[in-house]
Write a structure and sequence with these properties.
The chain is α/β, with parallel strands linked by helices. The chain has 22 helices and 34 strands. The chain has three domains: 212 residues, Enolpyruvate transferase domain (UDP-n-acetylglucosamine1-carboxyvinyl-transferase, Chain); 225 residues, UDP-n-acetylglucosamine1-carboxyvinyl-transferase, Chain (Alpha-beta prism), CATH 3.65.10; 119 residues, 3-Layer(aba) Sandwich (Rossmann fold), CATH 3.40.50. Helix 1 runs parallel beside helix 2 and helix 20 packs across helix 21.
């Protein structure tokens, strides 16, 4: 997941491949709560790992429910059989509507009847999201709910510590035109207290009906059958009780599938996009996004558990669509409209205004930044794409801490003007799809030559490794420590019993053998380790001896030739920060920013001395200084790619500068390049 303040997407040219989607948020949090309320243990497989499910799991643990993480995709929930274990707690639920609304209803009926008291709260935006219609319905049956802030909004206190009797003799009325989650919450809560037939009546038109279908189907899996008369009246039979099904699998998220269906519809590709984990048999209403995408020209086929998408009509076909049945996925249609001929109108989407942000306002504002003409109404949005390629514009995309805004607007990276697209606060995707951008980049091919690369070259112990790693983290870019690759050659040679002494390397045949070995290396970096042919060699390449060997083998042309292509292959979306001695002069000569980092030999020797001592190694400052000067001379005077700044490199002398100041300087230079 990208934890950066912003993420710059390079212009993308095509996309193809296969993506495995994470579990559905809507199903995950429903299943977690139902399992907690049931009799028995429930093994849940393929549960979504996200911010929303995290707050639900933490809430269940606080309530005394047993939660066992059996494996990465397997959680075992010990049900409470409708009996409170903990009777007083404060629960923080972030901005998770699928957690706070069902918990509000379930805990209200349990706290009221069993004599308990709970406080529910969330982030500031959650305290702006209405819950009054649900609260009114609960109060009408005698549920004890106290506003702790603005009436009709969280935070709330549920129960007052004393037991009370609920009145279920009359139909319980709830509005259906604000959020279907209010009805879902009542449907999940009332089986806990349904000693008689209990009726819920929906007032007004019920929006997002497919989400109610999900709820009803999942209730049946947990032993509670709901009688539905149209979409206005729902009956829970007397004596209903939750019983664990034993195990249950969470379907992949159909809303998340919409981004990759759109990707397949927009991006040229020979192979198209294959989506795994959700298919045409999905119980989620957002699977009907497939029909909307097809109406816009996408070619979509599918199986019970998978979809395949290929670009068809181009430009896409503008549509006029009632989106009540796909409120979340409809946001993706708004961005697809940028690539359509004509005006696309999405109707019956008033619920957008009470989501993680006011999505109607937010989507209108951000699409206008891209050059679209937008008409926003109370419950509709009309989008006319930029009139020509030149009419496309760009500006930082605000995400409003809304995961769907970030994922939808990422599709603007395919704009025909080949403009970079900046997504602010990309980490908000953690709400439902923490690895969204990684998945998108794995499928997408940037426009040739447009992957941004920052080169940081410099002599030994100048601090280029630390600086480049921190800059890469700040930008969300990949990091290439080219010095590690040359150190890896030395380690590989040792494992193969090939000498790396100066005398042996001076022999052309021996140098060629080392080069051949380098070409065959299988190298993998992750955040904490370096792997050579599958083995962790992080410690082996960080010794002083490995550093000296790296300096010798890096002078060999066969080795340099072998590693050039490997290094250039690290330049992938969204970008790369590469450090070494010839990144800007040889490997990435067209990089838009090249930095030559240096410091006095004395300063570098002091840094290396402190580093060795801190690790418990013995060191002599005079020997270290002599070694550094010798390596500098060898690196600067070698025949092939001598150590020197690129002609257009910016010099950064960090002799008296902190690493934090150096990072800020490089980022400032980079922002200057981006602005130009």
């Amino acid at each position: 997941m990208f934890n950066t303040a912003f993420l710059d997407l390079p212009p993308l040219a095509s996309a193809g491949g296969t993506v495995q989607l994470p579990g559905s948020k809507s199903i995950s949090n429903r299943v977690l709560l139902l399992a907690a309320l049931s009799q028995g243990h429930t093994d849940i497989y393929d549960l979504l790992a996200s911010d929303d499910t995290h707050v639900m799991l933490e809430a269940l643990k606080t309530l005394g429910c047993s939660v066992e993480y059996v494996s990465t995709n397997h959680v075992r929930i010990g049900g409470m059989a409708g009996k409170l274990i903990t009777k007083e707690a404060k629960l923080f639920l972030g901005n998770a509507g699928t957690a706070i609304r069902p918990l509000c209803a379930a805990l209200t009926v349990l706290a009221t009847t069993q004599g308990a008291s709970f406080e529910l709260s969330g982030v500031a935006r959650m305290h702006e999201r209405p819950i009054g219609d649900l609260v009114n319905a609960l109060r009408a049956i005698g549920g004890v709910v106290t506003d702790l802030g603005k009436p009709g909004f969280p935070p709330l206190q549920l129960g007052d510590g004393a037991p009370h009797t609920l009145d279920l003799s009359k139909p319980i009325q709830v509005r259906g035109d604000v959020s279907s989650q209010f009805l879902t919450a009542l449907l999940m809560a009332l089986p806990l207290v349904a000693e008689q037939d209990t009726v819920i009546e929906v007032v007004g038109e019920l929006i997002s009906k497919p989400y109610i279908d999900i709820t009803v189907q999942l209730l049946a899996r947990f032993g509670v059958n709901v009688q539905r008369d149209g979409w206005q009246r729902f009956t829970i039979q007397a004596g209903a009780r939750y019983q664990s099904p034993g195990s249950i699998y969470v379907e992949a998220d159909a809303s998340s599938a919409s981004y990759f269906i759109a990707l397949g519809a927009i991006a040229p590709s020979d192979q198209g996009i294959t989506v795994q984990g959700v298919g045409l048999d999905s119980i989620q209403g957002d699977i009907r996004f497939v029909e909307a995408a097809q109406a816009m020209g996408a070619q979509v086929s599918g199986t019970a558990n998978g979809l395949h998408i290929q670009r068809g009509a181009w430009p896409l076909i503008a549509i006029d669509l009632d989106c009540n049945h796909i409120p979340d996925a409809a946001m993706t249609l708004a961005v697809m409209a940028l690539y359509a001929r004509g005006t696309t109108t999405l109707r019956n989407i008033a619920s957008w205004r009470v989501k993680e942000t006011d999505r109607l306002h937010a989507m209108s504002a951000e699409l206008r930044k891209l050059g679209a003409t937008v008409d926003e109404g109370d419950d509709y949005i009309s989008i006319t794409p930029p009139a020509s390629t030149d009419a496309w514009t760009t500006a930082p995309i605000a995400t409003y801490d809304d995961h769907r805004m970030a994922m939808c607007l990422s599709l603007a990276a395919f704009n025909p003007k080949q403009l970079s697209t900046r997504i602010n606060e990309p980490h908000c995707v953690a709400k439902t799809f923490p690895d969204y951008f990684e998945a998108m980049f794995a499928l997408s091919t940037p426009v040739a030559g447009r992957v941004p690369v920052i080169c940081i070259d410099g002599p030994t112990a100048s601090g280029k490794g630390t600086l480049s790693q921190l800059v890469a983290q700040a930008l969300g870019y990949a990091w290439l420590d080219s010095g590690a690759l040359y150190r890896l050659v030395g380690v590989a040679a040792d494992l193969a019993h090939l000498s790396t002494s100066a005398e042996a390397l001076a022999q052309p045949a021996h140098a060629q053998a080392v080069g051949t070995l380098a070409a065959a290396m299988q190298v993998r970096f992750d955040a904490h380790a370096v792997y050579l042919d599958g083995a962790d060699v992080s410690a082996a390449i960080r010794t002083e001896a490995a550093g000296m060997t790296a300096s010798r083998v890096s002078a060999l042309q066969p080795v340099r030739d072998a590693l050039t292509a490997l290094q250039q292959g690290f330049a992938k979306a969204p970008g790369l920060v590469a450090d070494g001695r010839d990144m800007g002069t040889v490997i990435f000569p067209d990089a838009p920013l090249k930095v030559f980092l240096t410091a006095s030999a004395e300063q570098r020797a002091q840094r290396r001395y402190k580093q060795l001592i801190s690790k418990g190694n013995s060191a002599n400052i005079d020997i270290l200084l002599a070694d550094l000067k010798e390596r500098d001379a060898r690196d600067m005077n070698r025949a092939h790619a001598p150590l020197k700044p690129a002609k257009d490199a910016l010099l950064l002398d960090n002799t008296g500068v902190t690493i934090e100041q150096s990072v800020l300087q490089v980022l400032a230079w980079w922002q200057g390049k981006q602005a130009s």
